[in-house]
Design a protein that fits this description.
The complex is a heterodimer of chains A (about 400) and B (about 260). By secondary structure, chain A is α/β, with parallel strands linked by helices. Chain A is built from 16 helices and 14 strands. Chain A has a six-stranded mixed beta sheet, sandwiched between helices. The longest helix of chain A has 17 residues. Chain A is globular. The radius of gyration of chain B is 17 Å and the shape is globular. Chain B has twelve helices and nine strands. In chain B, about 50% of the residues lie in helices and about 15% in strands. The chains are: A alpha/beta (about 400), B alpha/beta (about 260). Chains A and B meet through strand 2, helix 1, helix 8 and strand 11 of A and helix 5 and strand 6 of B.
Chain lengths: ~400, ~260
C-alpha cells in the first residue's frame, strides 16, 4: 500500500472510515487548486487587501542593544488582521471550502485566535461557522469567545477530558463525522490527517518566504536563527519552511514547559513525549505507558496541546530543527520585557519564542541575526498575565 | 479455526447478535459476569471496548464508560488477564474494540502475541482506515486474529476495495456520526447494502445507533447480524455493579427480536 502524506515515518491518515472519503476529497481538491493561478491570485489578493500581508519585519534595536548579542528582528504576524498568523491558513482553507461547495465551517480553538480567524473568514464568505472550544479555555479567553459571537459564529463549549484544545479537536472530529456532507473541518494547525499538515504549512509558508526577501533587502544575508513558539506548530512551520534547505539557518521551536518539564504540569511534547498515533497522525505525543494521552498544562491556551505536527517530529528526528522549553515564568517575563522594551505586547504564545531568543541572542555575535516569529498580539492575554502576577482586573 | 469464522458457520443464516461493553466499566469483575450473562442470554459474539482517554469515534455514552473504566484503573494487561479467565469457562468469540494508539504504544507484536495467548479472536480499530491497515495487518494475519474492517454510508467507491479484503465479518456503520442511540436512520439501506453485497464474501453486520429489539430486527434484515453497544452501556451506567441481570434481559429481548 502506498504511504501518502508522510514526513519520514510521521504523518499518515489515521481517521475513522466515515471521514476517509472527505479526507480524500479534500486532498484531491487541494491538489487541484494549490497550483491553480486563479486560486492563488484570489488568495494573494485576500492576503494583501484583507489580511494586511506582507507582514513587516521589524528590527528590534532596543532589545538588540539591551541583550548585547545578535541583531533581533521581529516578524510581525501580530499585525495581521485578527492579530495573529492564523488568518493565513484560514483564508486559504475557506477559499478551498468554497470551491468544494461546502456551506458550513467547523473549527477547534485553544487560545481563540484560530477560532476568531475562522469566524472572521466565515463572516466574509457568508458561511455558517461553529467553533469548538474547551470550557477551561473559554474562561481564560472570554474576550475571544465574545469576539467570535460578534462575528456571527457559534462557540460550543467542550467539557470532556481536560476541557482544553485536545478535547475541542475530539469534539470537532465527532461533529465532522456526523455532518460530513456539508461541513468543512478547518483545522488550525499543521496537524491531523494528511493533507492537513502539508496544506496548513503551505498556507503559512508565506511567513518564511517573506522573511527571506526582507532579510536579503535589509541585511543582504539570511538570518542565523529563526525562533518560533510551537504548540501544534503552524507558525513555526510557516516561519521555518523556506529555510529548511538553508543549513546555515538554525531553526528553533519554543515549547511550553508550564511549571517546568520536571513537573507534571507542562506541554513540552518534544522534551517529554514519545511516538504515538492520535488525531489522525503518527507523531510525538505526551502520553503514559498505556498510550492514554496526558493532561497537559501551559499558561498559554494556544500551546496547551499534548502533540505536535508530524513535520516537526520529522525535523526533530533528523536534527534539522531544535526544540527548547520555556516555562510560564520565562514566558511572562518575556511578555513584560517586549512590552516595556519595544512597546509591543506579544501573545503569550509568541512570548515563548521571545524568551528563547532572549537566551540565545547574548551567546551570538553582533553581526549575526535572529528572526523571532511574533505570531500574535497579546491584548487577549493581559487579563491572564495580570492574574499570574496576582493582580485582579475583574470588576 | 478462528472462533468468529466458526460462529458464523454454526449460525448458518441465523442473524448474529454482537454486543459491546466497555471493559472495566464499572469494574473488571462486573465485565466478566456481563460477558457470561450476555452469552447465556443469546449474544453470539462479544466486543470488549478498551478504554481510551480520547475516543473520537464514540458518543457521550461510551465516552463516559471509558472515563469510569479508566478511573477504576483498567489497563490492557488487566483486560488480557480477564480474557484468560473467561477462556476457562467460555468459548464465545471475543473481540477488542480499541484505538490504534493503545496497540502501537503497547507494542504491536506483543499485543497480538497476547491476543493469541489469552484467546482474543478479532480487533476493531475505528481510527485505522483501509489506507493505514498495514500498521497491524501482518501481525494480525500471523496471529490468526481477525482485523475487522468498517464501511460507512460515505465509503461509496471505497466499499469494493474494503469489502473484498475484509475478514471475520464486515462492520457496516449504519449512519454518519459517532456511536450512540438514534431514533431514526437517514441512510438508504437498500442502496448501501446493495453496494456492499456486490463485493463482500464474508458476513456483514450493522452497528451504530441500534438500541432496541425492533431496530435490531429491522436492521439485521438487510444483512447477517446487528451490533448493539451504547444501549447496553446505558444499562451498565444506570445500574452499576447490579447491571448483570437487566443487561441479560435486554440482550435476550434483542436476540428474540431478531429471530
Amino acid at each position: 500500500m502506498s504511504k501518502i502524506g508522510r514526513f519520514g515515518e510521521f504523518g499518515g491518515q489515521y481517521v475513522p472510515e466515515t471521514v476517509m472519503n472527505a479526507v480524500n476529497e479534500l486532498n484531491e481538491a487541494y491538489n487541484k487548486y494549490k497550483d491553480d493561478p486563479e486560486f492563488n491570485a484570489e488568495l494573494n489578493r485576500l492576503y494583501r487587501d484583507y489580511a494586511n500581508r506582507p507582514s513587516m519585519l521589524y528590527y528590534a534595536g532596543k532589545m538588540t542593544d539591551d541583550l548585547g548579542g545578535a541583531k533581533i528582528y521581529l516578524k510581525r504576524e501580530d499585525l495581521n488582521h485578527t492579530g495573529a498568523h492564523k488568518i493565513n491558513n484560514v483564508l486559504g482553507q475557506i477559499l478551498l471550502a468554497k470551491k468544494m461547495g461546502k456551506t458550513r465551517i467547523i473549527a477547534e480553538t485553544g487560545a481563540g485566535q484560530h477560532g476568531v480567524a475562522t469566524a472572521t473568514a466565515a463572516a466574509l464568505f457568508g458561511m455558517e461557522c461553529n467553533v469548538y472550544m474547551g470550557r477551561t479555555d473559554m474562561e481564560r479567553q472570554a474576550l475571544n469567545v465574545y469576539r467570535m459571537n460578534l462575528l456571527g459564529a457559534t462557540v460550543t463549549g467542550v467539557d470532556s477530558g481536560t476541557a482544553t484544545l485536545k478535547d475541542a479537536i475530539n469534539e470537532a472530529m465527532r461533529d465532522w463525522t456526523t455532518n460530513i456532507e456539508n461541513t468543512y473541518y478547518l483545522i488550525g494547525s499543521v496537524m491531523g490527517p494528511h493533507p492537513y499538515p502539508e496544506m496548513v504549512r503551505n498556507f503559512q509558508k508565506c511567513i518564511s518566504e517573506e522573511t527571506r526577501r526582507q532579510m536579503m533587502e535589509i541585511e543582504g544575508r539570511l538570518p542565523d536563527a529563526v525562533v518560533a513558539c510551537v504548540g501544534g506548530g503552524s507558525n513555526a512551520m510557516g516561519a521555518f519552511y523556506d529555510f529548511i534547505r538553508e543549513p546555515g539557518v538554525r531553526l528553533i521551536g519554543a515549547e511550553a514547559a508550564g511549571d517546568g518539564v520536571d513537573t507534571p504540569r507542562h506541554a513540552a511534547t518534544m522534551a517529554r513525549g514519545s511516538m504515538g498515533i492520535f488525531h489522525g497522525m503518527k507523531s510525538i505525543f505526551l502520553q503514559n505507558d498505556e498510550g492514554q494521552i496526558d493532561e497537559v498544562y501551559s499558561i498559554s491556551a494556544g500551546l496547551d496541546y499534548p502533540g505536535i505536527g508530524p513535520e516537526h517530529a520529522y525535523l526533530a528526528s533528523t536534527g534539522r530543527a531544535e526544540y527548547v522549553d520555556i516555562t510560564d515564568e520565562e514566558a511572562v517575563r518575556a511578555f513584560e520585557y517586549l512590552s516595556k522594551t519595544e512597546g509591543i505586547i506579544p501573545a503569550i504564545e509568541s512570548a515563548h519564542a521571545v524568551a528563547a531568543a532572549m537566551k540565545l541572542a547574548p551567546t551570538m555575535d553582533k553581526n549575526q541575526s535572529i528572526v523571532i516569529c511574533l505570531s500574535g498580539r497579546g491584548d487577549k492575554d493581559v487579563f491572564q498575565v495580570a492574574r499570574y502576577r496576582g493582580v485582579d482586573l475583574s470588576e | 479455526m478462528n472462533r468468529i469464522d466458526r460462529k458464523f458457520r454454526e449460525l448458518n443464516g441465523e442473524k448474529a447478535l454482537i454486543t459491546f461493553i466497555t471493559a472495566g466499566d464499572p469494574d473488571l469483575d462486573t465485565t466478566k459476569r456481563l460477558v457470561l450473562e450476555m452469552e447465556k442470554s443469546g449474544a453470539d459474539l462479544i466486543e470488549l471496548g478498551v478504554p481510551f482517554s480520547d475516543p473520537i469515534a464514540e458518543g457521550p455514552t461510551i465516552q463516559k464508560a471509558s472515563v469510569r473504566a479508566l478511573r477504576g484503573g483498567v489497563t490492557l494487561v488487566k483486560i488480557f488477564s480477564l480474557v484468560r479467565e473467561l477462556r476457562q469457562v467460555s468459548d464465545i468469540p471475543l473481540l477488542l474494540m480499541m484505538y490504534i494508539n493503545t496497540i502501537y504504544r503497547f507494542g504491536t507484536r506483543r499485543f497480538f502475541d497476547l491476543c493469541v495467548e489469552t484467546g482474543i479472536d478479532g480487533v476493531i480499530i475505528p481510527d485505522l482506515p483501509f489506507e493505514e491497515k498495514d500498521e497491524v495487518d501482518g501481525f494480525a494475519k500471523a496471529a490468526d486474529v481477525r482485523l475487522i474492517s468498517l464501511v460507512a454510508p460515505t465509503s461509496h467507491q471505497r466499499i469494493a476495495a474494503i469489502a473484498s479484503s475484509a475478514e471475520g465479518f464486515l462492520y457496516c456503520v449504519s449512519s454518519l456520526g459517532v456511536t450512540g442511540t438514534r431514533s431514526e436512520f437517514k441512510t438508504n439501506f437498500d442502496e448501501f447494502f446493495g453496494e456492499i453485497k456486490k463485493s463482500v464474501k464474508i458476513p456483514c453486520c450493522v452497528g451504530f445507533g441500534i438500541s432496541n429489539p425492533e431496530q435490531a430486527r429491522k436492521m439485521s434484515s438487510y444483512c447477517d447480524g446487528a451490533i448493539v453497544g451504547s444501549g447496553i452501556v446505558k444499562i451498565v451506567e444506570k445500574y452499576g455493579k447490579d447491571c448483570v441481570a437487566p443487561v441479560g434481559e435486554f440482550v435476550k429481548s434483542l436476540k428474540d427480536g431478531m429471530r
